[in-house]
Amino acid sequence: MRLVHTSDVHLFAARAFEDDITMVRSLAATAHVLGADLLAIAGDLFDHNRVPRAGANKLMAELVEPGVPVVILPGNHDPLTSGSIYRHLDELPNLFVLGLHGTSLAAGDRWVVTGRAHLDYGSFPPLDLGDAADSDAAGAADERIVLAHGHFDLRGEAGAVHRPGWLITPEDLDRTAAGYVGLGHWDRAFEVRSSGPPTYYSGSPWHAGTVNVVDLEPRQAARVERVALHGGSLVR
Ligand SMILES: [Mn+2]
Q: How many other CB atoms sit within 10 Å of the CB of residue 89?
């Protein structure tokens, strides 16, 4: 199973709409050219929820156009509030929003991807998966992918009074029993750890210029590689 993992695209930030179109086309083409089974976006696809509906639908149509299924985890910038943009998008057959369309997306018993959507602007433990972790699909799949949008506790801040929101600890990672944990929230690509389970930030494609390409096979460690975006550099 081949996964392409990105995050923090922040569509409708201060860029021209044409730049957002170019980026979305590039991400879709990258996943397609690499033969991905799934394109996963680990939060903050949109910079905020007050985005124009027509423009957002145009971008989503571009994202699914090559035919690679897309799974989106709502992040802290685009949480699944009652007024969330995700509740106002056209239904597209290859677009799956975690928390809106279900707690996980599975391809038979081959693979399953799950993750806890941000539902509002408050903090919570992103890897406290609750029902998603217990679902039958999650238990049966050969390859289990977990997405989370939050801040990895790199410096041991979990016990601090003023600690970062949406904190992810090594203990949280240990509990996921995943073949790969795809993180979002940081703009830079970063290897949190390569095993137990392999956990990576993809970084924002605007900053990193890359996506994470993850190859998963039963009973083998995930192979993770950073690959440059298709169609030239959009890094700025
Ligand atoms: Mn974020």
A: 18
